[in-house]
Amino acid sequence: ANFNGYWYLLAYDAVDDRVKSFRINDMVDIEIMDEDPVDESKKDELHRSLSSTVSSWVGGEMKRVRLMVEGDAVRYFRRKSYDMIEIVEDNGDSIVIEAGYFNDIEILRLL
Length: 111
Hints:
The chain is α+β, with helices and mostly antiparallel strands and 111 residues long. The protein has three helices and six strands. It has helices at residues 40-51, 73-79, 104-110, and strands spanning 2-3, 6-13, 18-23, 63-70, 85-90, 94-101.
């Protein structure tokens, strides 16, 4: 999957019993197993999770935050399109954006 220009491997982790995401350029070693560790009852859940994923952070509930943007950053947010960010208020010199996120790190990347 590609999120914001970065490629991720989305996979089921049988040890933790959940879907996880792994950034491709952070991988140093991959082992392909002969056996399928995912039992049949988990495969439908896994497919639903992956098909509805909009972020590299898999699982959990989406949260929302509003941020005021001022100065040079206003131009940047007006011209750049984001999947989970929208301008909800435009005051000329400043804007208020609303962003959806699953993990606090996603908000930190905006700042």
